[in-house]
From TrEMBL:
<comment type="similarity">
    <text>Belongs to the phosphate acetyltransferase and butyryltransferase family.</text>
</comment>
<dbReference type="Pfam" id="PF01515">
    <property type="entry name" value="PTA_PTB"/>
</dbReference>
<keyword id="KW-0012">Acyltransferase</keyword>
<feature type="compositionally biased region" description="Low complexity">
    <location>
        <begin position="310"/>
        <end position="331"/>
    </location>
</feature>
<dbReference type="InterPro" id="IPR002505">
    <property type="entry name" value="PTA_PTB"/>
</dbReference>
<dbReference type="InterPro" id="IPR012147">
    <property type="entry name" value="P_Ac_Bu_trans"/>
</dbReference>
<protein>
    <submittedName>
        <fullName>Bifunctional enoyl-CoA hydratase/phosphate acetyltransferase</fullName>
    </submittedName>
</protein>
<dbReference type="InterPro" id="IPR050500">
    <property type="entry name" value="Phos_Acetyltrans/Butyryltrans"/>
</dbReference>
<dbReference type="GO" id="GO:0016746">
    <property type="term" value="F:acyltransferase activity"/>
</dbReference>
<feature type="domain" description="Phosphate acetyl/butaryl transferase">
    <location>
        <begin position="88"/>
        <end position="301"/>
    </location>
</feature>
<feature type="region of interest" description="Disordered">
    <location>
        <begin position="309"/>
        <end position="331"/>
    </location>
</feature>
<keyword id="KW-0808">Transferase</keyword>
<keyword id="KW-0614">Plasmid</keyword>
């Protein structure tokens, strides 16, 4: 039996859904759309008014997968692509031309999609580093956090981490947060040469005072001191970030990956993953993602794309990608 998504928004962050409700659906290229999970994700997001799907991939595979989930594809836009690499290039070209305002990963390896998006001449570069953020919602408390970078930058340099912080701060504001408190994680709150991540966090704290206005950035902080007011009280740490962080910046991809998965699997958190810093938001989903995470990621992409009440039938506003024009989408 084909795997499908649930038809409710149960578990989706209410604040995200409320904020996205005021926006128009964002035209979104679903890259390598020929799988039941990819198509059901697109269909559900479209039904909720989050996206207008443009299905890029093998038309036969798309048609077969659509039949398996009972989707007639009536009125849907299908753009042929001979393989995954071609699908990624075509989707990026559609974003460059302004025909779509977001990309959604379908049945394609992340590296293949990102290779096309990062192409120096024909990609979606804007001058800022591509970074990944998980918007996390804890269901029992409703607390929201951003964890970054847990998916793209493996061992980021200080300059890369500055872009990671900038992108995360912008995301936090877009989803309705006030000036965020940003914790730079390490295994200790002490600056010591024995722990390189503590030294980096100390340097970043000072750099961000000038480079990231409107946010309170502090580190190093161990995880408990970043999220637990009681732990901060016991250790007499009175900084505004202590115990009250909105954004957790991890020192490397291993830490971020383990942290977000622990929250998902032990606390049933909803993790909505998105790539920032590109000319358009890129929704990165996994086959293991539950429905709520897929819908939340689409809602965030819609918010980031920021399309409001565009004239019906008009092309999506041109993106800020560097380089020459790309061929447009024709009905």
């Amino acid at each position: 039996m084909a795997r499908t998504l649930e038809t409710t928004t149960a578990g989706c962050p209410a604040r995200l859904m409320t904020r996205s409700a005021a926006l128009e659906p964002v035209p979104t290229a679903v890259v390598a759309a020929g799988s039941p999970v990819a198509l059901e994700s697109a269909r559900r997001a479209a039904t909720l008014g989050l996206i207008e799907p443009v299905l890029v991939g093998d038309p036969a595979a798309i048609a077969d997968s659509a039949r398996s989930i009972g989707w007639t594809l009536h009125g849907a836009c299908v753009v042929p692509a001979r393989d995954d690499a071609a699908a990624a290039r075509i989707a990026v070209a559609l974003a460059r031309s302004g025909d779509v305002g977001a990309l959604m990963k379908g049945h394609i390896h992340t590296d293949t999609l990102m290779l096309a998006a990062l192409d120096p001449k024909n990609g979606l570069r804007t001058g800022r580093r591509f970074t990944h953020a998980f918007h996390m919602t804890l269901p029992e408390s409703g607390r929201e956090l951003v964890i970054t970078d847990a998916a793209i930058n493996v061992a980021p340099s200080l300059n890369t981490r500055l872009d990671i912080i900038r992108n995360a701060v912008e995301l936090w504001r877009l989803v309705g947060g006030s000036d965020p408190r940003v914790a730079l994680l390490s295994c200790t709150e002490e600056v010591t040469e024995r722990v390189p991540s503590s030294m980096d966090a100390d340097r970043l704290t000072r750099l961000c005072q000038q480079e990231v206005p409107g946010a309170t950035v502090f580190g190093p902080l161990a995880l408990d001191l970043a999220v637990s007011a009681e732990a901060a009280r016991i250790k007499n740490l009175t900084h505004p970030c202590a115990g009250a962080a909105d954004i957790l910046v991890v020192p490397n991809i291993e830490t971020g990956n383990a942290l977000f998965k622990a929250l998902v699997h032990f606390l049933d958190a909803v993790a909505a993953g998105i790539v920032l810093g590109a000319a358009v938001p890129i929704i990165l989903t996994s086959r293991a993602d539950p429905p709520a995470a897929r819908i939340a990621a689409a809602a965030i992409a819609q918010i980031v794309a920021g399309r409001r009440s565009a004239t019906p039938g008009a092309p999506y506003p041109a993106t800020a990608a560097k380089g020459g024009a790309a061929p447009g989408l024709h009905a």
